[in-house]
Amino acid sequence: MRTRTCISYLLLMVICLSLQPSSLTTALGQTPAAYEVTAKYNVKVRMRDGVGLATQIFRPTSPDRFPVIVVRDPYSNGTTDTRVKEANFWASNGFVYIIQSVRGRYDSEGHYYPYIYEINDGYDTQQWAGTQPWSNGRVGTLVASYLATVQWMSAPL
Fold first, then answer.
1. Residue partners of 141: CB distance under 8 A and separation at least 6
2. Is 21 helix (H, G, I), strand (E, B) or coil?
């Protein structure tokens, strides 16, 4: 039953993010990118225990509020060419794209113990993202592998 609830929750998040008409048509190649992109690197997002997690924030250069995509990554600090290209794509199409190094990896504080802190850190990051001045309160997650596992782990919260 819990797995079914998690699946429903993740599908709902994907649907909510997809309900941005201008972003959806842009992602499908029907219109050109609408926004210039602003990037902030190594922003420390504080978790409930005070540990700061290094976070890269790519967002449209606009005073408007946008849906947020959170990627939490143990493999990269979010500055690889591939990750930056992906972040710029989403941000130029009306999303805030956050790449966060998990606890103890790259510039994030704390110690890395796979899966141990992911539930609370993922939830705390999503809550933080949903309350920022550039966020419209809609927060979703994206990608696969360990990065998908951390999504599943925080979903019940």
1. 10, 13, 69, 70, 71, 72, 122, 126, 151, 154
2. helix
Number of Cβ within 10 Å of residue 59's Cβ equals: 24
CB 92 within 8 A of CB 22: no
> φ and ψ at 54, to 5 degrees?
-65, 125
CA–CA dist 144, 64 (Å, integer) = 29
Size (the chain), residues: 157
Residue 48's φ and ψ, nearest 5 degrees, are -60, -25
Retrieve residue 127's tokens: 């809550």
Which residues, including other chains, have CB under 8 Å from residue 88's CB and lie 6 or more apart? Answer: 37, 39, 58
pLDDT for 24-60, tens place per residue? 444 445 456 799 999 999 999 999 999 999 999 999 9
